[in-house]
Protein: 8-amino-7-oxononanoate synthase
Amino acid sequence: MSIIDTSDAGRSGLTGSARDFRVPGGPDLLGRGDGFFAWQQTRRQNGYWPFSRSTETRPGTACRARDDSGNPMEGVNFSSQDYLSLAAHPEIAEVATDAVKRFGVHSAGSAVLVGNTASSVALERRIADFLEMEQAVLYPTGWAAGYGVIRGLVRSADHIVMDALSHTCLQEGASASTQNISLFRHLDLDHCRSKLQAIRAKDARNGVMVITEGLFSMDSDTPDLAALQALCNEYSATLMVDVAHDLGALGTEGRGHIGIQGMLGKVDLVMGSFSKTFASNGGFVATNRRAIKEYLRYYSPSTTFSNALSPVQTAVIGKAFEIVASAEGKMLREKLMRNVVSLRRQFGEQGLDVYGDPSAIVCAKVGAESIARMVSRRLPTLGLLANLVEYPAVAKGAARFRLQVMAGHSEENIRHAVKAIKLAVDEARIMAAVREARSRAMAA
Ligand SMILES: Cc1ncc(COP(=O)(O)O)c(C=O)c1O
Structure:
């Protein structure tokens, strides 16, 4: 498709993809956003730009927000990632207030200088213990942790073998570290093995990092971690698992798929984010070697040369870990899972397919971006906030609605979400069929 689509659908912003503007050329760097912006404006003016919304209230199970043109919306919120609803927990607010009183609001330095506090040192210990690992290092965000663990350890002669659907922070960390990157088909262990075999047949001297996620954030599925670790041991490779979406929220003890699969303390490197379950920005890397912790601290640029997490953040995350590990945490996970199972079942009953296995990420399949954009325009008018996901977060043509379920959602919230999506999808399909018939008639 040409970038300028003059068809009826193109003029209203239903065609085209962010993919079309990935590689703008020419000498004028400052002109590089123009094509994208024109396309985005077309979508925006027609109500098809559902990104960069801002909340006007706490992002709880109900929320008031505005789109990026300032139009207000209000409704049941399935677009925020606070899986155990801890952001609204009174003990979290209390610990944040206490931290401000004791430490102030700012860490005022990198963790390699004086950015750590008693609270961040205690948090590193707590995370390592929770995962039954020896050590943990904190990062300013989960993204920085994913990027930084790869950039910190992998050098240009080394190799990376990664699941093709790995998160962008892992892909960017890989690209910044080496050109020797092999992607294996999503969750496909045989394909991973064949990549490792090919590398080791030629190169026994350099390192190989195998990268995957505990729970894939758009597909809600999970690799066999024990088998992957065994493969890594066989080929002298190092396994790195991103547990951003499952840690805290899945498993009877909240230790995610590493816990569910009996792999606590046995995975070479574990990296995670606090932004989904632990009520704060921030990320970590856990390892069984003190030397790796020290090395990352000084050679992983996204922590070494970045300001440490603030004392408010580390206090909040520490309290969130305490709740996650408690009987209350277990009860919240059970509530979350009941919500997830109910949402998936109700989607199925309405003939809407969902991806993967039960987790806090429930993605309803749509496919065509044109249909998905019509649905996304309609949802706020039906009192539902739910994220449209399209390229670059997923492949072109695989658009979906990603509902992020919280323990705090009620059965009524779930029924409302399913009803709204079903109605909006049905309407969008009818409108698409009418549009198609009209353009066929005009062409005839
Ligand atoms: C799998 C995965 N890893 C890492 C990140 C980055 O985490 P953060 O939001 O804490 O930067 C995300 C968040 O989108 C994610 O989904």
User: Anything to note?
Assistant: The mean pLDDT is 96. The chain has two domains: 46-77+327-443, 90-325. The two ends are 21 Å apart (CA to CA).
